[in-house]
């Protein structure tokens, strides 16, 4: 095969366009809508995929116009992703208006945004440049949009020698800029800087500096791998989104280098391959991935696996992954159709997998996926979510991560990063790590340590602590035991807070918007406590059985019951000073499936104002209404205290389960 300057040739791109309309008719329609609006100088809000709101950018387009307070708007617009839609629309229709708009937008941008003077401060160029069209990140991404759109439209008569010469001049300017300010290889931005530079070096290979551009990009991408890919193959920011995005950032130059005759070292591809272990582990039975930190619900990890399989020419990965529109436009219709057929019978892994050096644990069984976070924050894109978890059972995501929603400084940015928005313990109304700004946390950040990890045929356990609240005037250490049943549908969450003085403690559960939550309380004379609980009340300082919550998911014919028990110890102030009861409420919360969009949901909050050490135990029993009613498990006994830990007895029509768990061991007897 002769060397290429792009992933697909003109014939292959036309075939991809035909397959796009066949296999992804809705996406093809959306592409045409985006392109048609761009012809009118109307743009979608970046990252949102919101096709109901279009922003007029002026005639000619004002590339610095920003109707929001979020600098990401300007940065996103100046990445020129809409040009990819213009190119695809041209391939699908042959309409020259899309080419005309591409050329017009390219020229107007170049007129409005000449290269900055070389005296620009380093920090401004790399991170904080406002309004931002020449920030290194946008510079590296924009050239990829220009080159891809050019490849899509190469058979148009408007793509003549004169325009090509203009494009090459602009690409040279971008290459000079990208080599003048070298971003730190410890952050993901540097990957995209060099991703763009390598693409220029391949596309404009006849330029006398092209070998230098390719060599510099190759070496710096290797440095990025060295600094950012950890021992367990996880990208250093420890988020799903940036890990999976890094696969593409590292992978596309590797692929293009192979196709163009400028291959990367073998070790580079091996590092890429190591990243798939984490991506595969994060995939739930619904083929979505847990949204750790600044990530989104819509992430499809299998699509990334397929993409990397194509990049590495690894059929095993291709079969385990899932083809996507991006895969089609990268590898062509023939490869797409081949692996689409092979992937139809591939199942999601159900084997649990740990990343103990990082602190991530995926506990799995058929139809079940539980993610537990005992990892460091990971930097600016991390959230204050130590000992957070997400639980998917059968057809439903029960307890969720909120997503990221926005990078715009303000209330909502803090909310989605806050401890209160995650499935963990919040103490005294403050975050585990103090929030400073959208891209900054105070130091030291909360640090976690895993104390126990057990895997068994019938259950799995993880036990971890974090020190985020040790900074309080009265230090508090939070320890969490998490037990997931396998044959028996059961989740046990035990939280211990070791303290000496008074604190406000809140155990938080973020629900999926599909949930209908109902709080039942023994203190309400009009409410009934669940009849399947044998309440054994002892002294209030030892144990208190507290209200239960019923969660219903009518769309998937599932439900879940939640029970609590409370354990306190030490000298307690009088009841006049402190209320020793755990107060269970359902309050409004928010989740964000995709950047820029949020929707309301419910949060179950179990709160108490206590003195000294305290333990909160929660038992969650899900029910599948499509299964035999005889399989429903009933709570027969729930006891909890500091010395003996938790004792739980369940039964159904055929079996009994007795569970004991304390800080040393767990016993699980199913008879």
UniProtKB/TrEMBL annotation:
Its main location: periplasm. This is Heparinase. Coiled coil: none annotated. It comes from Paenibacillus hunanensis. It is found in: Periplasm. Residues 29-299 form the Heparin-sulfate lyase N-terminal domain. The keyword Lyase applies. The keyword Lyase applies. Residues 352-604 form the Heparinase II/III-like C-terminal domain. InterPro entries: Chondroitin_lyas (IPR008929), Hepar_II_III_C (IPR012480), Hepar_II_III_N (IPR031680). Keywords: Lyase, Periplasm, Signal. SUPFAM superfamilies: Chondroitin AC/alginate lyase. Pfam families: Hepar_II_III_C (PF07940), Hepar_II_III_N (PF16889).
